[in-house]
Amino acid sequence: MADRTGHEVNETDSARPEQDWPLWEVFVRPHRGLAHTHAGSLHAPDACLALRNARDLFTRRSEGISLWVVPSAAITAVSPDEKDPFFAPAGDKAYRHPTFYDVPEGADHL
Amino acid sequence: MSQPISGPPPMPVTDWLSAQWDDACALDPRGDARPDGGFDDLIAAERKIEPRDQMPSGYRETLIRQLGQHAHSEVVGMQPEAHWIPRAPTLHRKAVLLAKVQDEAGHGLYLYAAAETLGATREDMLAALLAGRQGYLSFINYPTLTWADTAALAWLTDGAAIVNQVPLCQTSYGPYARAMLRVCREESFHHRQGFDSLWVMMRGTAAQREMAADAVARWWYPALAMFGPPDARSTHSAQSMAWRIKRFSNDELRQRFVDVCVPQAELLGVTLPDPAMRWNAERRHYDFTPPDFGELTQVIRGHGPCNRQRLEHRRQVHEEGRWVREAAAEYARKHAMRNGGQDGT
Amino acid sequence: MTGSGYLLSLGDDALIAAQRMTQWCASAPELEEDIALANIALDLLGQARALLSYAGAREGAGRDEDALAFLRDPEEFGNVQLVELPNGDFAVTIAKLLFFSVYQELLYDGLLRSRDSALAGIAGKAVKECAYHVDHAVCWTLRLGDGTAQSHARMSRAVDIIWPYTHALFIADAATAAQAACGVGVDPATLRAPWLDRVRPVFTEAGLDLPEGDWVPLHGRRGEHTESFGLLLTQMQALHRAYPGARW
Q1: pTM to 2 decimals?
Q2: What CATH number has the domain spanning C4-209+222-242?
Q3: How many CA atoms lie within 13 A of B15 on its CB side?
Q4: Which terminus of chain C, N or C, has fewer Cβ atoms within 10 Å?
Q5: CATH node for A19-88
Q6: Selected residue of A56, A58, A59, A67 to mutate for chain C interface (largest C Cβ count, 10 A)
Q7: Collapsing DSSP states into helix, strand and coil, what is residue A66?
Q8: Which sequence spans correspond to the domains of chain A?
Q9: CB atoms C32 and A49 under 8 Å
Q10: For B99, how many CA atoms within 13 A lie in the half-sphere containing its CB?
Q11: Which pLDDT tens digit goes with each residue over B111-123?
């Protein structure tokens, strides 16, 4: 089977640690009076370290007065190109999966 | 004695570079009020492609590769500088270099995060790096032999990175463009402190001037090589330009870099190691000797002075850190179970 | 009233702790941790620079932060051995960080009331930084102690190695006692009880045992050094010393 970069991996490869340091999305409110804005993402094993890592990564230059961290998997999303024009709850798709014309199975994309 | 000599004048920067930066900052990401079209319409209209948009698989693959290599460059690029932090000649320089290298780790994270929006994982990209399927900028495979190397490296390679990255602030993929804006804001400090460091050395003792001159002579061509092979030999460029991932050609960016550096070198008082370098009034650019592209090919293939050492360090650090990452993951699992799924802070 | 020697001992603690922490750069177990440790190193370096600069000013002999950092010989440094110990593995580093940062936070908190307003000012900034260092060290002590069997074993071993060097943090030599008596400094002996009160619950929660006994290495008092200290200073000072009088 191929990993997400298209590289063939052995199914018996050892446990994938990145699943244990999941992805978190970070939102920063830079000034009082403004809304939180998406700043980026990082890996952390839990919310405690996610928050601290977010502080180190995104507010080193005193760039924010409020931080939110949210597991990426917890975000439900919908995009303007969905068939339903009213953004009705078709939003059961995971936040990060891109759609593309074709993905050759097993090909080495790199 | 710990303060630098009265500061250098503002660095000369070309109008081209300033204009690129102004354009990037002025760009209204919302674009105009026309409804979104398909991928091709968006590209043609200079709109951004976002993570869940329809996109050709080649566009996605090209971006994963480019983002991965860009991220690897930041992270592996920490190595030539990190070993000088404990040895910095003043506490001020120690702090500045540490802050710079810390920024580079952060840039790597921004770029890995952008790649992850396309479905690549950090672990897979690292595996690709260690297996030689993804690379990183060639200059990182040269050794930093003296303290002056840290200054020359910053002035030249961060300067080259800025020439490459400012146009990338207008790349078509939204997360990449946004990461580039953040990176560019931070990178200017890196470039500036390299220039400052050389400025002070060139006005110091004879031994310092010699060290600085030697470092510049060794880092000039590796910096020039950062812009890749000449356009005629660059296989990926045409498609990248069509997809507006790439905004300017290798040769054009390399020329822009030379034009930026020559006045800065004159101000510093350093000699660039190119006897053919001269202003061409007709072209309105500096003529210069291109880097040895044969050497660049060799270095990209793994035969540079430091390739094996850099990769081995990255591999070793990742291996040695495994027990720590596993401990944190196990702790999180235990506590999630104990708290019935509540992930407390 | 404020002795430069006292300021130097505080500054040397921070400087040497910073120097050790910089050695994790590009080598941390995860990129996010690389950034976090660099933050801590930058904070400690900032504290060192403030304290050394002030010490030089009090001394009045024209020595600035760099003259003090790069031109003193090992026997002239007043730091405790704890901060000069090699980084070891990540568990050893976290054990060192936990013990030292809890001490520093208590120390700087006490120095907020120093009769020397400049020192109180330095402490005001530092105490907030140290609160973050403590938080970071506690997070990791819990995760290593209560993580996997391997991490628990490594953390236990780290604590056993580092513990004997913590006692020197709380010994007041004559100079420090005099500074405390005149209201400038803090008597470190008064810090041990609150230090234990802060550390003990972390250990309990992490499933780690607090070592028994008060074994202290001979010649382990503040200002007396280990073999590794000479190597550390050589690396730190060589370049500066190779270019006497040069500006950078």
Answers
A1: 0.91
A2: 1.20.1260.10
A3: 2
A4: N
A5: 3.10.20.520
A6: A56
A7: strand
A8: 19-88
A9: yes
A10: 21
A11: 999 999 999 999 9
